[in-house]
């Protein structure tokens, strides 16, 4: 993988982690019940995707 592709993959991973952080913050502060659980689950999945992109950009 060339350097520019690694850069874009790492930026995508950082962006996904930032979106996950914002989503979990919104879910904890503004929602209740099953919606809170669903948003937290979505944020966790997005965080895992961002983490995988970060690992791919290192390799």
Biggest beta sheet attributes: none
Tell me, rounded to a whole number, the average pLDDT. Answer: 95
- Rg, please? 14 Å
The arrangement of helices and strands along the chain is HH
Give the overall shape: elongated
- Could you tell me the strand content as a percent range? under 5%
User: Uncertain spans, ≥5 residues at pLDDT below 50?
Assistant: none
As a percent range, the share of helical residues equals over 70%
- Oligomeric state of this protein: single chain
Structural class from helices and strands? mainly alpha
The number of helical segments is 2
Q: Please provide the count of β strands.
A: 0
Q: State the end-to-end CA separation.
A: 9 Å
Task: Characterise this structure.
The protein has 59 residues and is an all-alpha fold. Helices cover 92% and strands 0% of the residues. Helix 1 packs antiparallel against helix 2 (33-58). The longest helix has 28 residues, at 3-30. The chain is elongated. The mean pLDDT is 95.
Quick take:
The chain is mainly α.
Fold topology:
Elements: H1 3-30, H2 33-58
Helix pairs in contact: 1-2
Defining traits:
single chain; 59 residues; mainly alpha; elongated
């Amino acid at each position: 993988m060339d350097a520019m592709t690694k850069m874009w993959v790492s930026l995508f991973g950082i962006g996904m982690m930032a979106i996950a952080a914002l989503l979990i913050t919104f879910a904890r502060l503004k929602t209740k019940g099953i919606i809170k659980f669903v948003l937290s689950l979505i944020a966790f999945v997005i965080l895992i995707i961002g983490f995988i992109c970060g690992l791919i950009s290192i390799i």
